[in-house]
Amino acid sequence: MKIHKNIIIAFTALCPFIVNAQNDITGTWHGTLSVTPQAKLRVVFHIDPLADIKAKMDSPDQAAIGMPGELRFTSPDSVNLAFPAIGADFCGRLSEGAIKGKFSQRGISFPLELAPGEFEMKRPQTPVPPFPYSTEETAIPNPDAEGVILAGTLTIPANASNDTPLAVLVSGSGLQNRDEEIMGHKPFAVIADALARKGIATFRYDDRGFAQSTGDPAKCTTADNASDAAAALRHLRSSRRFGKSGIIGHSEGAQIAFMLAADGKTRPDFIVGLGTPAVRGDSVLVDQTGTALTMAGMPKEWTDAHLEALRKIYAAMIAGEKEEALRLAEERIEATKNIPPMLALSENLRSITEIQNPWLIHFYKYSPADDIIKTSCPALALYGEKDIQVHPTLNISAMEHLNPKVKTKLYPNLNHLFQHAQTGAVSEYSTIEETVSPEVLQDIVGFIRTGE
After folding, report:
1. What does residue 18 show for φ and ψ, rounded to 5 degrees?
2. Which fold is adopted by the domain 133-279+367-450?
3. Contact at 8 Å (CB) between 281 and 396?
4. Three-state SS at 39
């Protein structure tokens, strides 16, 4: 699902000229902000006075990379950076190999010490050569979408034959590369490596209009993304190089797996869903909101009232009753006008009535129920107990009710990425060394091999 990239303070709370282009401060620097005693956020600054964008900031714990900024001042021993999009700036002075200074955002300041270079992210599962299998760079056109060519990597086990199983890997929502890379993790590269070592081929590709794939992603919906996945599967089948072929999808990609399983034109031989939404999109969004408010310490009665309003507004929008949705939002704003923490939430309800994003509109309206019911091929739906983006209990219950033939499994202590986690929060992703639980990899291999 989409990861909301609210930066720094928003995540927990919620002299413009350039001189001396060549200096000791040019380069990459990293440090950790102690926003609260419990919340620590890593930041990385990239400073290059000769680049078009002279300052950029990463917030690895929030999956925010390459935020453009301004280099307001630099000298051999000091720097002043600004990031207007989030109302933040950093001022610091070089001393004993570190830049010591102050990070400020919207009137609140924190001490920040920067060390040279990037954070070292340990990712022991990321595959490194030499590999006991081969790979081919492959480009696949989607004949149903003009200008779309999917660039990807075909991973082929040693001694592969036309009996070798093949899985097409389909990523979650948002633009992603073929490895579904996030916070230094490369889940799809890890899955492809694990499967190849067990005699299963895979194809993973950059999303439409991202990295090396072509096409315009601006108006893409889940249906368009499903069209791309279907094109990849049909193309590889037509090569007659492999045996049974199916889909492994993560999050939105898992929804797509069931969409294709219900489509007589494409119908895969098997599907594996990792964190599959089995309820309508608005229910997923309401549940995500409820989890976020609970984790932020919002009183239960406030959370319940906000979620009830949210449900009604989505229902009105789905029914095409935009004026009613706006009335409900304004009603909630009026009811909370004297409760500042609730008023800020209520004012966000109005934005739902103004949504223009095609992907989001399709998402909150789409119900996967019919596609799940129609799925007849072997299907495996896996969930992590600590997934806060696709609620495991809610969605397993819906999946088993809709289609008892789908095999489901719930893993204790795994998050949305199927890593062992403490809370499941997105902020943990970057601090966890594991990319994909070995048990999950083993179960995927076993299912593709045996259907059980």
Report:
1. -120, 130
2. Rossmann fold (3.40.50)
3. no
4. coil
- The helix/strand/coil state of 341 is helix
CATH number belonging to domain 9-116: 2.40.128
Residue 248: other Cβ atoms inside 10 A: 28
Rounded to whole angstroms, the Cα distance separating 388 from 147 reads 36
- What is the spatial distance between Cα 314 and Cα 321, in angstroms, rounded to a whole number? 10
Each residue's pLDDT tens digit, 216-251: 999 999 999 999 999 999 999 999 999 999 999 999
pLDDT of residue 38: 62
CA–CA dist 70, 89 (Å, integer)? 9
The pTM is what?
0.83
What are the extents of the domains in the chain? 9-116, 133-279+367-450, 281-363
Report the distance separating Cα 399 and Cα 276, nearest Å: 9
Q: Is the dihedral of CA 347, 416, 206, 124 positive or negative?
A: positive
Q: Matching CATH topology for 9-116 and 133-279+367-450? A: no
For residue 42, pLDDT beyond 90: no
Output the pLDDT for position 14.
33
